[in-house]
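G., the chain you wanted modeled:
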Amino acid sequence: MDPIIALLPKGGGWSVVAVLLMLTFGSQQIFSKEGAGRFWLFGRIADKIAHRKEHAIEREATIERTRSDYLERMIGDIRRDLDDERERSRCAEKQLRSDLDDAWGYVRYATDWSRAVLQMSVEHGWRPPLPEWLTPDQWRSRKR
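Predicted structure as tokens:
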């Protein structure tokens, strides 16, 4: 408090200015909300006090909007990642189904070949001429 008092001019000059302000505007006018706007220091202090709660609410709302925007962006990124993963899974499933169909086709081929060998062994008496046996790769190339 002493440094503030030290800044005041020596003598009674400053008190005369304060009395003139009180007489000109009246204490009601200086310290009221409407009158405080005219005096920058009083106006700012009064505005801070009056709108402190509103500023805090606005600040919290801004933080909440920022948080909400961030979460929406994250959810959007996750959805895009899931869509990409779903598409990759569909392609992989299609490939697996194709491979499975080929494998079952080869199993049917091998079964038919074995059946043909058994029938020939019955017809030719246990020494049949064996048909050509194909490996899976040979079978696929002939199938296509």
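The radius of gyration is 47 Å.

Shout if anything looks off.
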